[in-house]
Amino acid sequence: MAESQSSGAQTHSQKRHPRPLSPHLQVYKPQLTSATSIFHRFSGIGLAVGVLYLVCWLIAAAQGADSFDRLQDFNGSLIGRLLLFGWSAAFFYHLLNGIRHLAWDAGFGFELPTAYKSGYAVIIGTVIFTIAAWVIGYFQMGAF
After folding, report:
1. What is the three-class DSSP state of 56?
2. For domain 34-141, which CATH number applies: 3.90.400.10, 1.20.1300.10, 3.50.50.60, 1.20.120.140?
3. What are 89-98's pLDDT values in tens digits?
């Protein structure tokens, strides 16, 4: 009797069509709000890596002038400058988007047009603050 039930009746999972468990990139088009959320996570990860690099820099400084000079030489290389530029951009993005999230936590800016305006403001502000920080830094070094 158990055999006749199992051969004749299909389980619920056998009747379903193979599809994603939840809507994913195949269903939804990328939007500014989802992109800013993803970039916020990436910038947080980048900042965590940057803190580890800062610890290495402090250890090199504690080990003496030779270790510190080697790390400073790397910082001055093209790869080092690109990493530092990326970390500064991640810092400003995470800061500005964090302020945006604080406004959301307070109940402001949930309307879609406002969310898009604040998203664009975060991106534009990130570019402006990052470039301004680097220009000011090079100006203070006397490079300009």
Report:
1. helix
2. 1.20.1300.10
3. 999 999 999 9
Instruction: Determine which of 17-21, 32-36, 101-105 has the lowest per-residue pLDDT on average.
Output: 17-21
On whether the CB atoms of residues 98 and 65 are closer than 8 A, the answer is no
Hey, what are 128's tokens? Answer: 């402006």
Distance CA 59, CA 54 (A): 9
Where do the domains of the chain lie?
34-141
Give percent of the chain above pLDDT 70: 82
Residue 133: both structure tokens together: 């920080």
Mean pLDDT of the chain: 89
What are the helix (H) ranges across 9-111?
A: 12-15, 32-63, 65-76, 78-105
Dihedral-angle region of residue 64 (phi above 0 means left; psi in -120 to 50 means alpha; beta otherwise): left
Residue 35 CB neighbour total at 10 angstroms: 12
* pTM (predicted TM-score): 0.79
Task: Kindly state the DSSP code that residue 77 receives in the 8-state scheme.
Answer: S
